[in-house]
């Protein structure tokens, strides 16, 4: 049932990830900037809390709800089976979900078609002539990781390409380990799609270390654009998403929920290809 929420003027955002990643990975900082930019203009503030795991995240929601410390919360990085949604419904805390894998959630949500974006990425690399592809993914338990991985495998199979998936954790170290594993095996891929910019940059470093020329011997495609991608040598080709704009859309959804608006599913602008110097036909 719709309700108008008048409370403390704070919106909670809990991130279950190593705090050091916030200083390295631009995605969440751009998202936060977009959210805060819109909320502050409407007299609301964003309360950011970084915790080590999902149990601590759920504990934060319960504490906030019991103490009436926030008027609503923003949830990201949905898992395939996500206990957080059940808890948030149980404690009746107004919620906006960002990047949900489907549109029929019980909360207002912003949906991203990760599967189509991955199909577009594979199609682009195939159009360059690559037949041996790899994907360095984020944690497999995340719903958007599953959507991208399934689409990657299906599109590779449909086009008669070889497609290998190696799981990592979004970190520089994880991206480097995955790249070494891929380039050190027989039948190494000629193109790799990374699930974020940090891992792609780590992959670029490993390629230089192993004397694998980019893009002549290896094409690299990163997910999400950033200044890091644009300043790399060569600049990284990316599947670009307007993260700041998605943050502003998230804030608009929060404001609508607080005003008693209905549960709605919004479609975020589709990630689109920005080709740069890190992709080319195989040498």
TrEMBL record:
Entry superkingdom: Bacteria
Q: Which residues form the Transcriptional regulator LacI/GalR-like sensor domain?
A: 122-279
Asked if the record carries the keyword Ion transport, the reply is no
- List residues traversing the bilayer: none
InterPro entries per the record?
LacI/GalR-like_sensor, Peripla_BP_I
Stretches of the chain forming a coiled coil according to its record: none
Q: Indicate whether Transcription regulation appears among the record's keywords.
A: yes
| Residues spanning the signal sequence | none
Protein known as? Substrate-binding domain-containing protein
Per the UniProt record, one Pfam family is Peripla_BP_3
